[in-house]
Amino acid sequence: AQTVTQSQPEMSVQEAETVTLSCTYDTSESDYYLFWYKQPPSRQMILVIRQEAYKQQNATENRFSVNFQKAAKSFSLKISDSQLGDAAMYFCAYRSARNTDKLIFGTGTRLQVFP
Amino acid sequence: GAGVSQSPSNKVTEKGKDVELRCDPISGHTALYWYRQSLGQGLEFLIYFQGNSAPDKSGLPSDRFSAERTGGSVSTLTIQRTQQEDSAVYLCASSWGTGTRGPQHFGDGTRLSIL
Fold it and tell me: Among A18, A107, B61, B109, whose CB has the most other CB atoms within 10 angstroms?
């Protein structure tokens, strides 16, 4: 079975600085998708960025980018120029390309942003 | 509506009662998912509906949990004889396809509290 591990329960960053959130996963599959979701206090899960495992190029979305290391099964999220609105819970998630599209989530990292 | 709609937003009930949680997916989305998020935890997959296919119920924790999706649209998650460990936020998501063509869009969830 696939698992997702986020080893940082909490992280903090100064406004305008850069922070990296860690995520590792375990799978025997070669084709899959990886995601980072943001969950503010409103509870809604918001998709931040996604990566297809067959793509070597790291995904980027404005201030958000990932460092995808397939061999190491690592998928970290880098937030550049952090803003107060980035404060939230961040969840890393895995989805197999083969079977049902359920997402397997890590336990999350709470990000605090200080002015 | 524009997004996934869930009702009620909050539900408080006594142990042993039955509860029904509703999810109205984004119009046109063929896939619908239910997840459970216990306090301080990541999301746990419960059940997945895709079109007219048989649902994937592999995540339902016990036979007290059931879900249906009528007419390929609205879904209801039912918990019978609720227990205190059922207290959690129940999140619904929908997508229009599979793979990365269909990222999952989440609702705001229902916070269920069992007294």
Answer: B109
Do B14 and A72 meet the contact criterion of CB atoms below 8 Å apart? Answer: no
Interface test with A, best of B9, B48, B106 (most A CBs within 10 A): B106
Contacts of B103 (CB under 8 A, 6+ apart): A35, A47, A50, B95
Instruction: Name which of B41, B99, B105 is nearest A107 (Cβ-Cβ).
Output: B41
Q: How many CB atoms lie within 10 A of CB A115?
A: 6
Which residues lie across from A33 on neighbouring strands? Answer: A52, A95
Per-residue pLDDT of chain B (115 residues; tens, 9 = 90+): 579 999 999 999 999 999 999 999 999 888 999 999 998 778 999 999 988 888 999 999 999 999 999 887 899 999 999 999 999 999 999 988 655 556 789 999 999 999 9
